[in-house]
Amino acid sequence: MFDNKFTGKECIVFGSGPSLNDWDDTQIPSAIRLTCNTCIFSKNIKVHDYFFIQDTGNKHSSRSYNEPFGYVSRKMDYDKFKPKVKKYYGIGVNGRRKKWSLSIKDAEDGDAETYYLYRTKLNIPDKISFMESVVFTMVQFAVKNNCKKIYIVGCDGIKGSRYNEPNINVTEQDRKVEVKWKRQWRLLYQYMDVNNVTYCNFSQPNSIL
Q1: Which residues make beta-bridge pairs with 51?
Q2: Please, how many CA atoms are within 13 Å of residue 100, restricted to the half-sphere of its CB?
Q3: Could you read off the pLDDT of 154-202 as tens digits, one per residue?
């Protein structure tokens, strides 16, 4: 999983937040594209180089119901999806499957490589530290493969809102999630070079070029 495959290259990490609707995929055409979850249904992403999913989207995950576009609801679509290079399915934490994890059988069905998350420090070179969101998994994947520059797209940190869902009112719970996300980013910034990361701001679309 880690072999310095991105040395000297740029990567774009795509979340599935509402701002993905504003993405123009002609930007940064040479960058390696890392996508996740419902990104496979987005018309705004033309190329998926690497794809990650580690949460089935069932009622045991971050919501109390089965997500209509989650893995458990659209398993056939996810398993048939073929990124350009490789697909990864997360199957648990510290060697054990969680209620929300995909299974080895799922990985076989989807012709995907498996990985575990670990409750460990970020600087362990051959492990992905458990930081809850698959976005942080992808960032670690890029960093530990020696990517020189990372762009973050569609990572809005709003609980319950995806690019293909109606807009929702921001609640106190959403603000707590945003605070949690910022805390996770601070942890990452302690580990990696913050100057090599650009969080795309679509109110200034040319700022990422």
Answers
A1: 35, 87
A2: 20
A3: 887 655 566 665 555 555 555 666 677 777 878 887 777 666 888 775 4
Q: How far apart are CA 146 and CA 62, in angstroms?
A: 31
Strands (E), 135-193: 149-153
H or E element at residue 105: helix 104-109
Can you read off the two tokens belonging to residue 144?
């530990």
How much is the CA Rg of the chain, to the nearest whole Å? Answer: 16
User: Do residues 22 and 43 touch, judged by C-beta distance below 8 A?
Assistant: no
Residue with tokens 């054990």: 96
Continuous segment of H or E residues that includes residue 128: strand 128-129
Low-confidence ranges of the chain (pLDDT < 70): 59-65, 157-178, 193-195, 201-209
Q: Is the pTM of this model over 0.85?
A: yes
